[in-house]
Records
---
Amino acid sequence: MDTLEQYFINSPLKKVMQKHFELAVFKKFLRSNGRVLARKTLLDAGCGSGYGLKLLREAFHPRELFGLDILPREVQLARLQDTQATVLLRDVVHTSLPPATFDAVFIFTMLHHVPQWREGLQEMSRILKPHGLLLVDELNKELVLFFQQTMGIKHPKEAQFEWPEFVQGLNAAGFKIIDKLVLFNRFGLFLCEKMIR
C-alpha cells in the first residue's frame, strides 16, 4: 500500500464514508434480512488503524471483537483505540485462527490489496461459524484502474477483479450472497452467508 492510500484510509473522509455509508448499508442489509449481530463474536479483517472496530463496538455491542491487519503500524494504532478489541498482526490469507470462531466477518475495502484474495475468502469461510455472515465492500477492476491512472495509486494486478469473478470467488469459498448493492458497476457491498457443504 503506497503512502497516499495509507493517508486516505486514516483520513476524516474515509471515516465519514465508513460510518455513514458502508456501515449504514451493512446495517440495512442485516435489518432487511432479519440478521442480528448484537452480542456476537465479530472480526474486522483488515482493520487498519481501528476506526472500523470502534464503529462495530458501538453498532453491535459484540460479545467479543477482533481485528487483524498485516501492517504493523496500523495494528499499533488499532491497539490504541478504545474498542476493547483483540487486535492481531495477521495476514487475511493465513490468520492461524481456530475454525468456526466468528459469527460475522467485516471486510471494508481491503481485498483489492490482496493478490491471493480468493484464498482470503476461503480463510474467512474457514473461521466463520456455519451460517456465519461475511459483510464485504469492494472496488472492482475499473475503479481500481481509475485510481491508478488519476492518482498514481498502485494495486497488485492479481488483486483486481470484475464482479462476475468476485462472485465466483465468493461462491467457491462457500458463500451465498443474500443481499448486495453495486453502485455505478464500480463499488459493491455484499452480505453473504456461509453455507453448509
---
Amino acid sequence: MDLRIDKLQRIGARTEGVLCLGGGLPADELFPRRKLAAAFLSVLGRPQSGALQYGWPEGNEGLRRWIAQRLVARGAIDVHADDVIVTSGAQQAIAIAAELADISGGIVATEDETYPGALDLFRDRGAHPVGSEALGIPANAACAYVVAGASNPRGLGIDPARRAHLLGSGVTLLVDEAYGELRFDGVVERPLLADARDRTFHVGTLSKSLSPGLRVGWLIPPRARMPDALRVKRDLDLQAGSMAQAVVEEYVRIDDFDARLARARKIYASRAQRMIRALRTYLPEARFVEPEGAFAVFVETDLEGVDEAAALATATTYGVSFDPGSMFRPSGERDPFALRLCYSALKSDDIEEAVHRLSRALSDVRARKAA
C-alpha cells in the first residue's frame, strides 16, 4: 500500500466538507440501530448468556446454523452448522484460507481488478496475484480468488463461461461473497461451494449487509481441511467476539433480514443510477460498466503517467476523494489512470455534486500534466 495514498484517504474521510467517494462503506441509515440495541439488551439480560463468556473457535452454534441454512436454500445442500467457522470479518476468513492453500511463493489467480485487502494479504504471504479473466487460470496456480455475486470494484456477477472455467479448472477456489446478497435484481447466485465442495473455501460476511462494526464473517473450508482451519483460527484469536455473535444471532431472530436486504438493494440501486447519470454529465469521456450490485463504479480514463497520490491530493482540495485504481489491480499498474467511486455511503443529493467536483479536479490534473 502506498502510504501517501493511505494518509490522503484518511484525511479525506475525516475532513468536514469533503464528499467521500472512497472507502466502500455501507449507508449509515441502513444500520438497524433499534433492533440491534434490542438484541444487545436481550442477550445481556439472560442469566446464562454466553455473550460475556469465552466460546469455542468455531463460534455460536445458532449463528452457524443460520449461516448454513441460508446456503442450503441457495443450493449448497451439503453444508451444515458444523461446517461453518465464525470469523472476525471476511478478512480473517481469507487469511485462514490463504494459509491453508499454502500460497507462499506461488500464484494466486484473481480477477483483473479485485479487493485490495486480499491483494495485500496475498503479497504479504509471499504470493504473486495475477489477473486471469482474459488469460485463464495458470496451471500452476496455488488457488483462484474470486469475489462472487457482485465483484469489487466493478459490481459485476460471474459470467457463465468464467464460472464454468473456475469449476472445471480443478484449482482450489477461495470464494469471497462479501456482496453476494447485494445484487440490485435480488438474484442471489448459486454458490460455487455447491458445485466444488471439496476444493472451495467459502467466505461470507455481514459487514456489507448489516454492519462492519460487528466484525462477523465466516469461513466454510473443504471438509477435510476443517481441523486445520480450526487450529489456525484458534491460534489467531481463540474465537470471534462472543458478544457480537450473540447480538447477531438474536437480531436475525427478531428482525426480517431478507426484507432488510431488499431495502438495501433498492437504496444502493438508486444511488448507482444517480452516479451513472452524473458521470455521463460531468465525465462523458470516462469508461465504465454499469454495476449489477455492490457499492461502486470503477471508472477508467485515458490519462497515463498520473501520480495517483498527487491526483488524490488535488481532488481533496476540490472537496472530494476517491480510491485510486492501482489498489485493485493485481500488478499494481497505474496506467491507465482509474478510480473506484463509491455511491453507497453518500446521500443521493450529494452524489451529483461529488462527481461535479471530481470532474473539476481531474480537469486540473489533466491541465497540469499537459503543462
---
Amino acid sequence: MNIYFLVEGRRTEKKVYPKWLGHLLPELEETNDAFAVDDKKFYVFNGNGYPSILDNHLKNAVEDINKIDKYQYLVMCIDADEVEVDFRIQEVQSFIENEQIELNESTEFALIVQNRCIETWCLGNRRVFKRNPDEETLREYIDFFNVSTDDPELMGKIDDFETHAQFHASYLKEMLYERNIRYTKKNPNGVTDATYFNELVERNRNTNHIITFRSFLDFCDRVRERMEEENAR
C-alpha cells in the first residue's frame, strides 16, 4: 500500500497531512523520494498553489506514478477558496478529461476539497476556542461569526480581507494565540497534535460540521479497510 499526495498549500498542508495520517494510519511511513517506495509508504508533493497544482503538477504526478507503478492511490488536496466545492470538483474533472490524463489501472484517484481551506477545518476545535478572549481582534471575529457554535465552513469574511481563506487563517491564528500557540503557515503549531486532531474528528461526527473534512476521514477509512483485507489474505 503506497499513497501519493499532491497538496495545494505551499507550506501548511505538506506539514499537516503527514501528522494527521500518522494519527489515522500509523502503519504508513512518509518517504521524501517518490521513486523510493516499497510498501506502506506515502509521499507528499507541494503543488505550489492553485491553479499551479492543476496546470503544472497533476500531469507530472500521474506520469511519475504510471512509471513507478507502485502507488495504489493518488490523492489531490486543494482549497475551494472563493468558489463552491462542487464547482472546484467539476473544474478538476473537466481538466482531467480535456487533458486526457489517465492513471494506470492499479492506481485510484481521490480528490479532497478543503472548504474553504485547511484552516477552516482547524477552526472546528471547540476545546481550544476561548469564549471570552482577552484580545480585541478575536472578540471582533467571534462577534462576526462564532466558530464554536456555527459551522466554520459556512463562515464568510470581514471586508478587510480579500479572500475567505485569508480571514479564516487569521481567525485560526488569533484563536490559537489566545492559548499561547503561535500558528503560522510555515509552522502550523498545535493543529498537528493528536488531541487537536481528535477534536476535529469529534466535531465532524457529532455535529456534521466541517463536512469536507469528512472526505479525508472517509479516504483514510477506505485505506485501512483495504490494508486489513490485504493482511487477511
---
Amino acid sequence: MHVQRMIATHPEARRVPDQALLHCIEECYACAQACTSCADACLAEEAVHDLRQCIRINLDCADHCGAAGRIATRHTSGNQHLLIETLNACALACRFCADECERHAGTMEHCRICADACNRGEEACSAAIRSLRRSY
C-alpha cells in the first residue's frame, strides 16, 4: 500500500500510521474518483435533466473525499479535532451520495458502482474516526 509507505517515511511521523486512517485515505480517493466518473456518466445520459441532483451530489462528494484524503495524508502531528470533523463531513457526503445514486442504480450501472464506493467511503471514514478517538 503506497499510502502507508509514503506516510511512514515522513520525518515527523512519530509512530506506525493508524491502519484505519490509511484505509480511509485510500477509500476517500477511490470514492472521489468514482463520484467524478459517475457525474460525467450522468451528464452523458439521455435524461440528464432528471440527474441534476445526482450530478451535484456526486461532485460535492468528490470534493469532500478529495479534501479529506489530502488532510488525512498530511496528518502527522496536526489537529486531530479538525481531522475528525473533516472525516465526519466526508462520511455525511458519502451517505447522501450513496442514497442518491442508489435511486438510479437499477437502471444505471455507474450509479450502482458509485453507491458502492460511497458506502465504502462512509464506513472507512467512520472507522477512522473511531480509531482516532481511541488514540487520544
